[in-house]
């Protein structure tokens, strides 16, 4: 890896384009390096994973709305939309499929200085591959770049510290991945990255307080904008520059300010793009920082069933990272995180709620665990309101560690019972994490897809999709266009908007 020092540059300071971060990323995108076998394997896994969680969300209102919008823009050759056989303009396919993938908060994650769902790169890059007639090997190369760029930015540049939503790293990464897919020059990719970043920076209010349906749309919007940015750049149009380092750019006014400095590592020329291997998927449909707590809760349901009874519990304190405490814990200061009438989007960002249900049920389900009747159960509400989080310096240090062997997303639970006794347990990583009790392998991704597709997709369609996905690097262009899942029955449509 090469490390680049990135800082604000006054307009009066000579700053060659070739030294800008956007150009460095464009060079990574244009590098024709081979994709190593273990990365190919993981890309196949994540394509299956994305399809699994998209299928499970096809009937939900945000996905229905986005799909209905997309279907109003038919196009040939175009790209496919999850759940239906229709082809639409590629930016609208990226939009609809991006919402479907993100709606349940159930696909892969990477957490460092910033957090991300790098699988959000798949819908826009796949949509362009289908539209442009690219084969499976080209798609794999594009996805390797998308994952690499987003994860490298997430390792170096914190957005949430300045209340900027994490999809500001996704616009540039998706644009870079599309650039690799299409074999575009650094000049074109550079311009696309500039626009993609410029139009996808937004505040984190979308993930604060009463969380709305926009939470699933935000990454889809970034992917849609990346497609449009590449199209515009291919037509010879230019974009704001220097986009990160400019005197009125992103660093100066949205991040650490004129004195801010970041050390961004990117693959050197000829170096394989391996960042996808640092990411991890979810076994459960909830914010990633809650994954380990669900696993601990379901274990404790057997080992300490008394913790499920609010009459026996005085308090439960989860000692965890600063991020977990302030984003999905009691440190957020959001009363909605303890509200039994809160939206699903809010509940999946409430670790007190999630841990209470895991303790009581010993399991987690992407639908029933969020049902209003489940959230409103009196014994659950009573237990839920006895659970709080604290920012623990050691767990925060481990959360931010660059040593993947000690990097952790869990914490220590300290429960005090009404009889004065205590129960103390800890968990560092989720069971499905590469260092967890049951790391996810190909068979787990396939099982997740089969489980979530059951009853939604016909058995023969399940087998057809898996047969294509598992041969991804060998697919021809027509097979890439068929890399979609069609529902067994007609899907709902939303009320009419403008089109």
Describe this structure in words.
- The protein has two domains: 2-278, Orthogonal Bundle (2-methylcitrate dehydratase PrpD); 288-427, 2-Layer Sandwich (60s Ribosomal Protein L30, Chain: A), CATH 3.30.1330.120.
- The N and C termini lie far apart (47 Å).
- It has 499 residues and is α+β, with helices and mostly antiparallel strands.
- The chain contains 20 helices and ten strands.
- Helix content is 44%, strand content 10%.
Task: Give the helices and strands, then pairings.
Blueprint: E1 2-7, H1 21-30, H2 37-56, H3 61-71, E2 74-80, E3 87-88, H4 90-102, E4 110-111, E5 115-116, H5 122-132, H6 136-156, H7 170-182, H8 186-198, H9 214-234, H10 250-254, E6 261-266, H11 291-303, E7 313-320, H12 322-327, H13 344-347, H14 351-361, H15 372-375, H16 378-384, E8 387-391, H17 393-400, E9 411-417, E10 422-427, H18 442-453, H19 459-469, H20 477-481
List keywords for this structure.
499 residues; 4-stranded mixed beta sheet; 10% strand; 2-methylcitrate dehydratase PrpD; 2 domains; alpha+beta; single chain; two-stranded antiparallel ribbon; 60s Ribosomal Protein L30, Chain: A
The share of residues in extended strands comes to 5-15%
Topology, number of strands: 10
Work out the helicity level.
40-55%
| Physical arrangement of strands within the biggest beta sheet | 8-7-9-10
Q: What's the average pLDDT?
A: 96
CATH topology descriptor of the largest domain = 2-methylcitrate dehydratase PrpD
Q: Could you list the spans in which at least 5 consecutive residues all have pLDDT below 50?
A: none
Instruction: Give the biggest sheet.
Output: 4 strands, mixed
Tell me the CATH architecture of the largest domain: Orthogonal Bundle
Tell me the overall shape. globular
Count of structural domains: 2
Helix and strand element order? EHHHEEHEEHHHHHHEHEHHHHHEHEEHHH
The rounded distance between the terminal residues' Cα atoms is: 47 Å
